[in-house]
Amino acid sequence: VLDISKLYKEVGCFTVDPGFSATASCASGITFIDGEQGILLYRGYPIEQLAARSNFLEVTYLLWYGKLPNESQLQQFTHEVVHHTMINESLRLFYQGFHHDAHPMAVLVGVVGSLSAFYHDYLDIHDQKSREMAALRLVAKMPTIAAAAYKYTMGQPQIYPKNSLSYAGNFLHMMFAMPTQPYEVDPVAERALDLLLVLHADHEQNASTSTVRLAGSSGANPFACVAAGIAALWGPAHGGANEAVIRMLQEIGDAKNIPKYIARAKDKKDPFRLMGFGHRVYKNFDPRATIIRETCYQVLEKLADSRDPLFELALRLEEIALKDEYFIERKLYPNVDFYSGIIYRALNIPMSMFTAMFAIARTAGWMAHWMEMMADPELRIGRPRQLYTGPVMRDYVPLEERK
Ligand code: ACO
């Protein structure tokens, strides 16, 4: 009889690392994170500097090509993205197949996956220019696809992209303009949205990026890979957290209820967790959360009629949790998504769209990783092993002899 435990010993070094806590799945030159010191670098540039001085398309260029563009390179890159913002008219018909109250992430998975049916025949994944074209198409079309999902759920006509606007401004236009009513993009909203896109653009081997890489390692086309990434992003432990934070704050309702919810978060028999708290890598603070917290104040001051009571509640919850032994011991701090939902609310973006916003931003990172991986001449299919815990080898028992 085959002794499975002996077999593992004979294999030599066999690592079991659930959750990949200490196992690098690849080598990458795109993003660096020091979780202890709260450092995040895109291609060597600190996120604080990029947040203060750059914009989403410049950051996308940086992530893809490894250097900041000069003026004419940025102009050309912006022009190419703008050139691809339209979606095929027959793609618009897809939306009608969805239930009227479908979650935008469900629509996004379907519509982005269906881009494979439009473009993969023209895509040579072994050719760099062809890969770049796919990446451009994806980054350019994501806001159009996401805004169209929103318009569909609202029962409103879809709005075509307006290419004189910035990337963030165009998205706001497609979300809020009506055919009969022009929409003036507010510069504060535009800047805040652009900042969120910069902060969410990449974060090395998170669950969705790893999904894109694993799917891509088999030679799957990038549209299919990004659809897989969107599906992985949707979960509340990952990109779905921003929506879950707002739901949680609404459920808490009032500062007087905070201790009750903190007690629930500590209770191991209760599945409740403080959403927006904790991170697999950041164990002191999430530098993106620090930047975004500041922006929250500015946006609410300029855009909201009064302070958002949920923001007040979030600040109170943060204050109480950060003094609590349970959170201190486990190094649980607010992550970027503890605040992003509050900014989206101030921009009138509905809660169901929050994770879709994340997907728009992360498409830049997904494509950076996919292109980096596909350019590697030593690329091997990702094929993790497992630690088998099932029955040892046994003989088949005919049906009539089974008890
Ligand atoms: N609330 C309460 N307890 C928590 C929380 C939380 N939000 N997060 C972690 N813990 C506890 C765990 O119960 C565990 O306690 P134990 O050691 O007593 O068993 C300990 O802290 C370590 O937690 P793990 O689950 O092992 O941490 P992991 O690195 O696997 O998970 C994660 C990280 C998924 C982000 C987790 O902290 C979480 O679920 N947070 C809430 C969801 C969230 O905000 N996700 C967004 C992540 S950021 C992003 O995707 C942009």
Automatic annotation (TrEMBL):
Protein origin, superkingdom: Bacteria
Family: Belongs to the citrate synthase family.
InterPro entries assigned: Citrate_synth-like_lrg_a-sub, Citrate_synth-like_sm_a-sub, Citrate_synthase, Citrate_synthase_AS, Citrate_synthase_bac-typ, Citrate_synthase_sf, Citrate_synthase_typ-I
UniProt keyword annotations, A-Z: Acyltransferase, Transferase, Tricarboxylic acid cycle
UniProt GO MF annotations: citrate synthase activity
Catalysed reactions listed for this entry: oxaloacetate + acetyl-CoA + H2O = citrate + CoA + H(+)
Protein's pathway: Carbohydrate metabolism; tricarboxylic acid cycle; isocitrate from oxaloacetate: step 1/2
Source organism per UniProt: Methylocaldum szegediense
Encoding gene per record: gltA
The UniProt record lists the keyword Transferase: yes
Name of the protein this chain belongs to: Citrate synthase
PROSITE patterns noted in UniProt: CITRATE_SYNTHASE (PS00480)
